[in-house]
Specification:
The complex is a heterodimer of chains A (281) and B (182). Chain A is an alpha/beta fold. Chain A is built from 13 helices and eight strands. Chain A folds into two domains: 117 residues, Up-down Bundle (Glutathione S-transferase Yfyf (Class Pi), Chain A, domain 2), CATH 1.20.1050; 138 residues, Rossmann fold (3-Layer(aba) Sandwich). Chain A has a four-stranded parallel β-sheet with strand order 2-1-3-4. A four-stranded parallel β-sheet of chain A has the order 6-5-7-8, sandwiched between helices. In chain A, helix 2 crosses helix 3 and helix 4 crosses helix 5. By secondary structure, chain B is an all-alpha fold. The chains are: A alpha/beta (281), B mainly alpha (182).
Amino acid sequence: MKIGFYPGCSLKGTSSEYAQSTLALAKAFDIDLVEITDWNCCGATAAHNLNHELATALPARVLALAEKDGLKEIVVPCAACYNRLSVTQHELNENQDLKNRVEEILEMPLSGNLEILNVMQFIDRYIAGKIEGKVVKPFNHKVVCYYGCLLVRPHDVLKFDRLEDPQSMDILMKKIGADSMDWGYKTECCGAGFSVSRTDIVGKLSGKIVKDAYDRGAQAIIVACPMCQSNLDMRRPHINSYLKTKIDIPAMYITQAIGLAVGVSREDLGLKKLFVAPTFA
Amino acid sequence: MEKQGYISEIKEHTGINVNRCYQCGKCSAGCAVTDEMDYPPSMVMRMLQTNDDENYKSVLQSESIWLCITCQNCVTRCPMQIDIPRLMDYMREQSLQKKMVSKKAKNIVSFHKSFLDPIRFTGRSYEIGLVAGYKMRTFNLLQDLNVAPSMFMKGKLPILPERIEGRKQIKEIFDKTKKEDK
């Protein structure tokens, strides 16, 4: 069966290592991910902050294209895209008037029964069962798993993992040999889309996250969202200036960590693209 | 007869009944940005409950509605499951349409607009176009100049925008959903 792939804009630019590592991991397990034909931006935070109809129509086009490609399930590594696509499909299925209006705008039909998988759901379904047999280099480091906001909320729509203390990333990290620790900032916000417009807020919110990870002795923060990753990684100078200290724990994608454990090369995982480099890998 | 005010408008457009809030304050307690806000979320709820046009105006002119980062913590913990992030989206739309955007929110609104501009023409987000537009709108010309070269060296800053085939359709989507003047 064909599995669809929606990289989203971040994975084509600022977070290309997330796309690289997701595709490399899939390849290591002989899974072919097929990019949705002519996909567009989901509109992200900007669209739903300014215009609800636009924020529904943009992701709806992506869903319609995926259906047209004959896909039944799509993998969406970016937590923000995953959230927007899932919420849109849910809203359209719940609200017939909105659905009619959007179909009219797009001039495309929508059946509304795509399965939209985030990266953990994809790994769980296709990879997790085979991981332990494939680990060649156990990831024996202390880590904290950072889920952020958009993977787990709103729970009614996403129905993924537990709300306040999710476990899916921790379970996967333990499978590859990591000591995945309990900590206090699993689902606290990093500052998200304020990276450019209110970098001060990102420095503060992400600063608290990095500080707790450091205090608990983590050697890496494991993430699954390009916005979280770039706030925790690229914005480290702002974080360090907020904390008035220098903390150099890397924030790396779960696909990079699992990739390393099953023997994918550093190059194929895009490790060089991290601003705060992991010292152990 | 009950005064027909913005409370019924909100309900009509979002399905949210602001009267259901009983001021427990869990939203404000869990909000990531409460301490930056002029009115914390529970206070916004209370102001809206008054059905008083002056209070509504204060909400639409507040910085709070733009500082809401849509992390969804409030609705997750709300005992009445009131969708405050959706309400904030609606407040932002109203604030824009009625030209009541807080001056303090200029950077945030400029960023959102600059984010959408390239998408309208290419179908995808374009970092360089976004930052250029943002700088033009805010005059923050020097911001992030130090991070751009390393992003470029790491292959994280494509020079050319990605352009999809369905650009005409994207432009139509923008035109058909257009609500406010720039």
